[in-house]
Amino acid sequence: MQTSIQIPPVAVALAVDLLTGGNVVAFPTETVYGLGADATRPDAVEMVYRVKGRPPNNPLIIHTADTAAAEHCAGGWNPAAKILAQAFWPGPLTMVLPRGPHICKAACAGLDTMAIRVPNHPIALEILNRFGRPVCAPSANLSGHTSPTSAAHVLAELDGRIPLIVDGGNCTIGLESTVVDMTTDSPRVLRPGAVTLEMIQRQIAAAGLNLAVLSGAPDGSADSPEETRAMASPGLFPRHYAPRTPAFRFSRSSMPGVLNWLKEAGIGRRVILVAFPDLPPIPGVSEVLTLPAGGAACAQQLYATLRRADESGGDVILLEMPELRSGVWAAIEDRMNRAAQELP
Ligand code: TXA
Ligand code: MG
User: Fold this and answer.
1) Which residues surround ligand 2, an ion (CB under 5 A)?
2) Ligand 1 atom with least separation from CA of 99
3) Which of 64, 81, 229, 254 has fewest C-beta within 10 Å?
4) CATH code reported for the domain at 247-342
């Protein structure tokens, strides 16, 4: 199959035609590019899983053009969901709610819940408005790889597997949406993103709702068995969002360990360093890619930088972890943890 890259307005018309025909199409959102299909058609949903090589137990995110359409799709809605929709939609927040009757079971991996969001991107909204039905869209990469933040990234992942990539330039946020479970008594952030835990807590408190907002897996343990975690949020595998080159993470405070590792395991290997500004030079490193010091800019460029590191022909990537943990840094740290292993 020939994969064509098009820009609006032609691209939007083609995308709507493809979706109407039960086909898949890649399109931009403010977070990352999505691989969309009609969320009410089992054959179309099945194609998304097949194209991505995605395990069938990992549910997709449903996208709608506005909050009214999202409410219509969901099988239940509650006061906290209403507050968060008002505050953050359109935007990088996904809410887990009871699944409505029109949404394919397969899109939700057979669960009785569904994840839904209204994206904040003019092209995505135009496609959703003109198509008029809910669109399920995971990130437009092969399962387990780094999410695409440009049309070129999508092509690198899915060339020959999909008919169309709608080119909307670089994504402005660069990390996948925040996923918050709204089906339990206390909302729980399952995947951190640009809508931070603190922002959600502030909105819930300002609305006078007496609810704690939690984060992480319900059992609070980062190394719970995979099946347990899979039930909390089926897509959150420990290794995900990953480059193909073996990648190891380190923090500035553990530099002696990094230098020792380079002296032993690093000998004869081409080492690519991805680091924040002003890291003292490290002997034995072949190439340095610098991440922006600011949180929003770092989020926006993280995946593109990991892709460049992956393409630079190195044997190993060393990735410096951020020192800050709050706000969007929680999301950056989460993705880095999944992209790279701890240095042995
Ligand atoms: O920013 C985004 O969210 C992008 C753009 C395209 O919208 N999409 C995206 O989709 O990141 P994907 O498939 O790569 O990630 C979906 C996430 C997974 O972590 C999955 O486990 C979670 O949403 N999810 C989906 N349905 C769920 C459910 N019913 N319960 C818990 N988690 C769910
Ligand atoms: Mg993904």
Assistant:
1) 139
2) 29
3) 254
4) 3.40.50.11030
What spacing in Å lies between the alpha carbon of 258 and ligand 2's midpoint? 30
The three-state secondary structure class of 77 is coil
Domains 4-215 and 247-342 share a fold: no
Cis peptide before 256 (omega within 30 of 0): no
Please tell me the pTM assigned to this model. Answer: 0.94
Q: Tell me how far apart the alpha carbons of residues 137 and 114 are, in angstroms, rounded to a whole number.
A: 12
pLDDT tens per residue, range 147-205? 999 999 999 999 999 999 999 999 999 999 999 999 998 999 999 999 999 999 999 99
pLDDT tens digit sequence for 36-95: 999 999 999 999 999 999 999 999 999 999 999 999 999 999 999 999 999 999 999 999
> 170: closest CA among 3, 64, 31?
31
Size (the chain), residues: 344
Residue with tokens 């006061």: 79
pLDDT of residue 243: 85
- Protein residue closest via CA to atom 30 of ligand 1: 233
Could you tell me which of 20, 29, 26 has the C-alpha nearest to residue 51? 26
Quote the ligand 1 centre to 146 CA distance (angstroms): 14
The sign of the torsion formed by the CA atoms of 166, 169, 171, 176 equals: positive
Peptide linkage before 322 cis (omega within 30 of 0) = no
Radius of gyration of the chain (CA): 20
In the numeric block, the tokens 């553990």 are attached to 254
Ligand 1 binding pocket, CB closer than 6 Å: 29, 31-32, 34, 58-61, 94, 96, 108, 111, 113-115, 119, 137-139, 176-177, 179, 190-191, 233-236
Q: Which CATH architecture has domain 4-215?
A: Alpha-Beta Complex (3.90)
CB contact at 8 A, 16 and 117: no
Q: Ligand 2 mean position to 187 CA, how many Å?
A: 22
